[in-house]
Design a protein that fits this description.
The complex is a heterodimer of chains A (106) and B (119). Chain A is mainly beta and 106 residues long. In chain A, the strands form two sheets. In chain A, strands 1, 3, 4, 7, 8 and 9 form a six-stranded mixed β-sheet that branches. In chain A, strand 7 and strand 8 form a beta hairpin. Chain B is mainly β. Classes of the chains: A mainly beta (106), B mainly beta (119).
Chain lengths: 106, 119
């Protein structure tokens, strides 16, 4: 994968979870984040670096700095436990996906 | 509402072919680019390819280039993935995803169809 994510992140309920994604392409391309709960299809939670689709709680936010982007989940809930994937896209629409991060809510 | 429903998966032998379909509803299908993304059992997401809204431009992952072809029928609102020379490592849940308006992410995904390649 050309986008590198930590394999796992663990937090307690109510805490803040931060998931990073690093890759050279992020310096010039927008980033996207997906949440995939067990047995379900992915859901877009952040687009164009920091925009939230309708229906996604304000607890989900993201930031970008150079070649690293960070998904932040504030006030983590048990229901946020999922795999999270970052993604970038070149000008042709070709996607690069990160390897995914398993968020565990202890 | 936007709905994407994949079908056509199954158990096939290595070297054979299979065609997957993704039926779209709830939006003007011909206005949107579409992706195929797969997920091997217990593993992460793996991008397969994209077809732009007009159906003339397609791009593929290196792992499927020359074996897989994406097409679409905008009159029937159906996206296809034609898979040839299937290999054991093509075994995965195959999703179709719509390109979001004004962005390059997948704003709606289907529930996937499972392809198992095994002898």
């Amino acid at each position: 994968h050309e986008l590198t994510q930590p394999r796992s992140v663990s937090v307690s309920p109510g805490q803040t979870a931060r998931i990073t994604c690093s890759g050279k392409t992020l310096a010039s391309q927008f980033s996207y984040w997906y949440q995939q709960k067990s047995g379900q299809a992915p859901v877009l939670v952040i687009y164009k670096d920091k925009e939230r689709p309708s229906g996604i709680p304000e607890r989900f936010s993201a930031s970008s700095s150079g070649t690293t982007v960070t998904l932040t989940i504030s006030g983590v809930q048990v229901g946020d436990e999922a795999d999270y994937y970052c993604q970038s896209s070149d000008t042709l629409g070709i996607w690069t996906l990160g390897g995914g991060t398993k968020l565990t809510v202890l | 509402q936007v709905r994407l429903v994949e079908s056509g998966g199954g158990v096939v032998q290595p070297g054979t072919s299979l065609r997957l379909s993704c039926a779209a509803s709830g939006f003007t299908f011909g206005d949107y680019g579409m992706h195929w993304v797969r997920q091997p059992p217990g593993k992460g997401l793996d991008w397969v390819g994209i077809i732009h809204y007009g159906g003339k431009n397609m791009y593929y992952a290196d792992s499927v280039k020359g074996r897989f072809t994406i097409s679409r029928d905008n009159s029937k609102n159906i996206l296809y993935l034609h898979m040839n020379s299937l290999r054991v490592d093509d075994t995965a849940l195959y999703y179709c995803a719509r390109v979001g308006y004004g962005q390059d992410g997948g704003d709606h995904w289907g529930q996937g169809t499972l392809v198992t390649v095994s002898s």
